[in-house]
Design a protein that fits this description.
single chain; alpha/beta; Hypothetical Protein Tm1070, Chain: A; TIM Barrel; 3 domains; nine-stranded mixed beta sheet; six-stranded antiparallel beta sheet; 22 helices; GxGYxYP_C_sf; membrane
Amino acid sequence: MTRTSPFRIQPGTQPGAQPRTQPGAQPRSRPSRRAFLAGGLAAGAAGTFLAVPSPAYAEQAHGISWPARRELPAFTRPSHLDALMMAGDTAEDVKLLVTTLQGLVNRERPRIYVVVGKPSEGADTWLKDTHVPYTTFTDPWQLLDRHLHRAKGIVVYDPEVVETVNVATTIGALRGGVIASPELAGKLTAAPYDLPVLDDLRGRFDSNLAATTWAFEHLWPRTSHRVLFGVNPGQSVPIPPDNWKDFEEVAREDRPIRDSSNRAVHDLDLSAFLGGDAVYLRFADSQPADGWGAAVHQVTVRADGTVVADLTAGTDPERAALFDKGGSTLKPQSDTNDAHRFADGTNYFVYRLAVPAGTAKLVVSVDMWNQYLVSASMTAPAVSSDDRRPASQQLRDYAVATQAMPFWLASNDSPEETALMERIFAAVDMGTPYLGWFTDEFNGVRLASRHGVYVLAADFLENASVFGGVRAPIRPQRVPAAPKLANKVYLSFTFSEGDNLQFDQHRMRQLWDHPDRGRVALNWSVSPLLADVAPVMMSHYLTTATAADTLVAGPSGPGYFFPSLWPEKELPKFLAATRSYLDRPGLDVMYALDDRPALTDASAAAYNDNLDLRGIFYNMWFVRSDTTVMDGDLPVSTQLAIGDRAVMRDRILANAEDFDGSAPVFVAVGVPAWDLTPGDIVWVVEQVRAKLGDKVAAVRGDHYFTLLREAKGLDG
């Protein structure tokens, strides 16, 4: 179904009423989407923002069509593309220049297509599927020479403050310019380009937070608020191979423990590491292949028996002691978990422990669990991954084309940055999409969900400003007749990550083209918003699916959010307003994620009342798969999940021990899409059949819930 009104009502208000505000606060000024589209940008911005709203896919001479019922815009249909196959080691400032020019040019009509490096699905795979004529370039300056005349000037960013890359992007998008490093500025302002400097941000800001705050206060009112962009403007400086040469191992857990059952306080005598300016303590994953590394709640430092530091995860003293976050994640205190910092896979974190001069004995007590690897040094590592330099992400073209304000703020470990992120989330309509990613997934999704903002992981999505203009048919997927219910063990396998637009573009296409696809029933989670972002991708998956393939809606419906945290009264409205995105491709099974072990009753009722679902696959970190019937007739099955196919086989067999032949058993299995392929699932099914014979059947997700409903006597 579609929205009956282009306006989204703010929580706690009635149509025509003023939004509630805190005492002494100013009411938010939020023009409706219709008014914003009709009026364009505020005075001072160059050019016209969007075309007048028109029906979805109605053709326009140029510009963007973004009617209220569309979540994301439709671009003009491209007639020819200049396709740049850019080497992955191209200078980052050149990549940034190309990407901002791409968004600027494609806003009027898609003309520039850019591939960086060697995508897993092939550099020209999707390009050929567009059936748009194209000319290939490998030298970025050849493409720049063809199109830089379309830019009105350059905005120079400050390499010392990486967030100025995002600020410069916003200024350039509003004023018709591209962004440039100080080094490129000299070339671009000289002949033959002779581009004027629209703004120079060098020396303007002393921190990333100051830069984003200024952008929010001065640029935000002139940008589009229909979509948010979390775009990382930097990357860590390279870590040299010998960065940890002075570290010595002091503790290790070699057992495969993933459930915190080994939690204990370990007293580590680090006296041997005294003598430097401080002691450096590094936590990593002893078994990086499976991703359940060190989890630390508290570090207590005693110098000669006296406590000199008490570092509890997430507190100001703990953050101040971090020398290098190393990609670690902070999980806040909750009803079921103590706050802890963890580092899985290749991630790590390092504390700098200041010790009083003259200390003779140093003991550090660490409350930790899972697969930890702890090492120490008296010498500081040469480099910290927290040191960053400007870098490019392909999503930037989409932010420029839509004239939004990209930003990058910490969703954890920085209360000041998190507070600004919440201000931005609070400044948009409920139900606004956030494209990009976060410094920390779970904290970021929690923050967004509480404000009614849903996430579309898209930081490595390429050419959205092109694919949004390529038309392709989207029709409901074909569903073969379900098998007759029998007393068997029914398995259903669901590939994860489908909410992730860059996964849909890259890894999913690679898996989809695997020669073993079609040999066993598989569910493929996919973003319903592909219908807007890249119709050709959604169409390809729908039209090339075998009878064994089922597309299911990725977490947690139209986008990724935690339903238990979405404002409860607003969730039914949001689901009803976006239902057409599931109905159009025929997605009647959903894969949902939440940060709690069970779907709440209120969430189940909202899904059941507003989406026509056969059932829900829920989360994917359980050791058992169980089904609960919620809201009277909605089956919700928890999923097993493990990235090792042998362990997956063993867990399925353990779940099948409930089968005695008198009634069917249903087992839902989540498949970590970065780790396993269709060939691995074929192997798992063959292994299980070797044990259980013809009493096991792998079925499509829609058939799984059809049979489960019949077994439980549910209508439909």
